[in-house]
Amino acid sequence: MGNRCWRDAIRQDLVSWNHLCTLSGYHDRTIFSVHWSREGIIASGAADDALRFFVESKDGLVDGPSYKLLLKREKAHEMDINSVQWGPGVRFVLDMCY
């Protein structure tokens, strides 16, 4: 399963999305939710009951941005993680639903 990273490009009142990269191989089952924090941390939750956190890699080895695994939490819940959402106005607070 893979997360795809996208960036918007605004042109004359139209928004188009460009595929930046794919993060694959980090979850064993279907990914249900991905949320990007204001600090640039990507959180993902999946049917494997796990959380993953990614940050942009500054290695500069590829064209365009790439991301690396920052932290993983196996069995973050007893059931699937259906939604992850960074808290509004509060740094580094993540809400999860299962």
What does this structure look like?
This protein is mainly β and 98 residues long. The chain contains no helices and 8 strands. The chain has a 4-stranded antiparallel β-sheet with strand order 3-4-5-6, with no helix packed on it. The two termini are 19 Å apart.
Topology record:
Blueprint: E1 2-11, E2 14-24, E3 31-36, E4 42-46, E5 51-57, E6 66-73, E7 83-86, E8 94-97
Antiparallel strand pairs: 1-2, 3-4, 4-5, 5-6, 7-8
Major beta sheet, specifics? 4 strands, antiparallel
Order of helices and strands: EEEEEEEE
Q: How much of the sequence is in beta strands?
A: over 45%
* Adjacency order of strands in the biggest sheet: 3-4-5-6
Mean pLDDT: 79
Secondary structure: helix percent: under 10%
Overall strand count: 8
Which structural class matches the secondary elements? mainly beta
Low-confidence stretches: none
Structural domains: how many: 1
Any idea what the shape is? globular
Please give the oligomerization state of what you see: single chain
Roughly how many Å apart are the termini? 19 Å
Rounded radius of gyration (Å): 14 Å
Number of helices: 0
